[in-house]
Automatic annotation (TrEMBL):
<feature type="domain" description="UBA">
    <location>
        <begin position="1"/>
        <end position="42"/>
    </location>
</feature>
<feature type="compositionally biased region" description="Low complexity">
    <location>
        <begin position="199"/>
        <end position="212"/>
    </location>
</feature>
<dbReference type="GO" id="GO:0031397">
    <property type="term" value="P:negative regulation of protein ubiquitination"/>
</dbReference>
<feature type="domain" description="UBX">
    <location>
        <begin position="218"/>
        <end position="293"/>
    </location>
</feature>
<keyword id="KW-0963">Cytoplasm</keyword>
<dbReference type="GO" id="GO:0036435">
    <property type="term" value="F:K48-linked polyubiquitin modification-dependent protein binding"/>
</dbReference>
<dbReference type="InterPro" id="IPR013087">
    <property type="entry name" value="Znf_C2H2_type"/>
</dbReference>
<dbReference type="GO" id="GO:0032435">
    <property type="term" value="P:negative regulation of proteasomal ubiquitin-dependent protein catabolic process"/>
</dbReference>
<feature type="compositionally biased region" description="Basic and acidic residues">
    <location>
        <begin position="131"/>
        <end position="198"/>
    </location>
</feature>
<dbReference type="Pfam" id="PF24560">
    <property type="entry name" value="zf-C2H2_OTU1_C"/>
</dbReference>
<feature type="region of interest" description="Disordered">
    <location>
        <begin position="35"/>
        <end position="91"/>
    </location>
</feature>
<dbReference type="Pfam" id="PF22562">
    <property type="entry name" value="UBA_7"/>
</dbReference>
<feature type="compositionally biased region" description="Low complexity">
    <location>
        <begin position="60"/>
        <end position="74"/>
    </location>
</feature>
<keyword id="KW-0175">Coiled coil</keyword>
<dbReference type="GO" id="GO:0005634">
    <property type="term" value="C:nucleus"/>
</dbReference>
<feature type="region of interest" description="Disordered">
    <location>
        <begin position="107"/>
        <end position="229"/>
    </location>
</feature>
<dbReference type="InterPro" id="IPR009060">
    <property type="entry name" value="UBA-like_sf"/>
</dbReference>
Length: 295
């Protein structure tokens, strides 16, 4: 967007800088359009020289009080009438020999030189005439065009700023969503890691239990039998695991008179007959067991 001020715009349109300054002062800085309207509505002030009368002062070209008195009295001084001899013409303006633009004073020419880089100026006896009605219309049309361009430029700038703002907001939203997604993925990985660790721990525990259960049972070479009699204290004795049941019968027969049978307590089962030739290990009476004497 252009950074050119409203004053610069009017000066570039050809209005004298001093006049532009007075216009903005008179309109209290109301803007470009009011300032130009004031300039066009004060055509007589356009001919005021730089540093001339302020607003409300005596317009340029009107006779002062002393001049009017001298005129009415008939004692006219040719100098007061502004009469000059041929060849005594003085500069009424400055002209840029590079672009042929005319300027009211040296200050305006200097501003033009600083903006354009033009350095070739000369004095001119051509007065800067007030704008004609056609020129005023043209200036107003030019101002309308400038104002429209400024408005369009401002709207384009606002649209561009809106696009940049929306782009920034979308980028911030995208980054926020990406951050949330990354956090969700990190949480998923952490939960999966914990599940895998728990699964691995359970597997190791199972393997330990399997290994423990697969250990070969201890081989017992002896068994301790408690033999309960129909009366009296139980008989406790240690036998070899390879002893047959017959050996137990012979041992008990030394303690119990008469005939008898041996049986297990639970489940109750009489151990006799062919079982007498089996070892205590084969009868699962190792490493200890309780037998009952039945008479």
């Amino acid at each position: 967007m252009s950074t050119k001020s409203d004053k610069d715009t009017l000066i570039e349109m050809g209005f004298p800088p001093d006049k532009v300054a007075r216009a903005f002062q008179a309109t209290k800085g109301a803007g470009l359009q009011p300032a130009m309207d004031w300039i066009l509505s004060h055509p007589g002030d356009l001919d005021e020289p730089a540093g001339g009368q302020s607003l409300g002062g005596q317009p340029s070209g009107e006779a002062s009080g002393s001049e009017a008195t001298a005129s009415s009295s008939g004692n006219r001084d040719p100098n007061l009438d502004g009469e000059i001899q041929d060849g005594e013409q003085t500069a009424q303006s400055l002209i840029c020999n590079d672009c042929q633009k005319m300027f009211r004073d040296g200050a305006a020419a200097e501003r033009h030189a600083s903006r354009s880089g033009h350095v070739n100026f000369s004095e001119s006896t051509t007065p800067i005439k007030p704008l004609t009605e056609e020129e005023k219309v043209a200036k107003r049309e030019e101002l309308k065009r400038i104002l429209a361009e400024k408005k369009e430029s401002r709207l384009l700038q606002e649209k561009e700023e809106e696009k940049l703002r929306e782009k920034k907001e979308k980028e911030e939203e995208r980054l926020a969503k990406a951050k949330i997604k990354a956090q969700i993925e990190a949480d998923k990985k952490e939960r999966a890691k914990k599940r895998e660790a728990a699964k691995q721990a359970a597997l190791e525990e199972q393997q330990k239990e399997t290994a423990a259960s697969s250990v070969a049972p201890k081989e017992y070479t002896e068994t301790r039998l408690q033999i309960r009699q129909p009366s009296g204290a139980p008989i406790t004795h240690t036998f070899q695991a390879t002893d047959t049941l017959e050996v137990v019968y012979e041992f008990v027969g030394q303690k119990v008179p008469g005939s008898f049978k041996l049986m297990t307590t639970f489940p109750r089962k009489i151990l006799d007959g062919a079982e007498r030739s089996k070892t205590l290990k084969e009868l699962s009476l190792v490493p200890s067991a309780v037998l009952v004497v039945s008479t």
